[in-house]
Specification:
With 242 residues, the protein is α+β, with helices and mostly antiparallel strands. It has ten helices and seven strands. The chain folds into two domains: 82 residues, no CATH class; 126 residues, no CATH class. α5 runs antiparallel to α9.
Length: 242
């Protein structure tokens, strides 16, 4: 029974993802501009912007307060778990989805320190000083700044460039202060799982066995819920069946 229910739920989630990618979701914008069954195209949650698919899955200020954060944190937690496992950090849980990252964790006899959501103290003021994950490898004398974002599918490449630019000053400052090789790693996934050609190269630099398929799934499993439930949007099942 569990397997059948689990399979059905996964099928529904994947169906919703495909529907979102194909623009086959009955949003208020669609109902107003295409099917002419509505007169108001504003989002039923925020009441500020047109309720398009892109708005629901990545741009609604109401969903940004909780739903988008949960989605972002799931991907971060998976990366953090894999990094800890690779660097010899003692883990309390067997699976990444049970993992609760700690602010500071040390592995490999103190050679590697992993920071979670911590500000970097620098000699000069740098506003963007808090990446999601920092890996300090004292033996190799390296620092890795990892920052995650789940963006609109159309903005994945742009967001990667923005992240690298965002942490440019911090990268330079850490290198100057600590005399260590430092680089920023953007991990950007579209809300329906879209990734850039550079994604695998970026992720391959991060310690650990990171499965791209799982990272992509975690980026959109959360948004399926708020696409179909929080915004009360129904997929056009009849259109998809025909």
């Amino acid at each position: 029974m569990y397997c059948r229910q689990h399979s059905t739920e996964n099928y529904k989630k994947m169906y919703e993802i495909v529907a979102a990618q194909d623009q086959a979701i009955q949003t208020k914008y669609y109902a107003t501009k295409i099917s002419n069954t509505e007169t108001d195209s504003k989002c039923r949650l925020c009441q500020q912007f047109d309720e398009t698919i892109d708005h629901i899955i990545s741009a609604c200020p109401i969903l940004a307060k909780e739903q988008y954060i949960k989605r972002h944190d799931r991907v971060c937690a998976q990366l953090h778990f894999n990094i800890c496992k690779e660097t010899g950090v003692q883990l309390d849980k067997k699976h990444w989805y049970e993992h609760v990252p700690k602010s500071v964790q040390t592995g490999q006899e103190g050679k590697v320190t992993i920071l979670w959501n911590q500000q970097v103290q620098t000699d000069r003021t740098i506003s963007n000083n808090k990446p999601d994950i920092i890996i300090r490898d004292n033996e190799k004398r390296t620092r890795m700044l990892i920052d995650v974002a789940i963006s609109g599918d159309r903005n994945v490449i742009k967001k990667e460039a923005e992240k690298i630019l965002k942490y440019k000053d911090l990268t330079i400052e850490i290198q100057r202060m600590c005399n260590v090789k430092t680089k920023a790693i953007p991990v950007i996934i579209g809300a329906t799982g879209t990734i850039s050609k550079s994604f695998r190269k970026y992720v391959s630099n991060i310690p650990g066995n990171h499965k791209v398929k799982e990272l992509r799934e975690n980026s959109h499993i959360g948004h399926c819920t708020h696409t179909s439930e929080s915004a009360n949007v129904e997929i056009q099942w009849s259109q998809r069946r025909n």
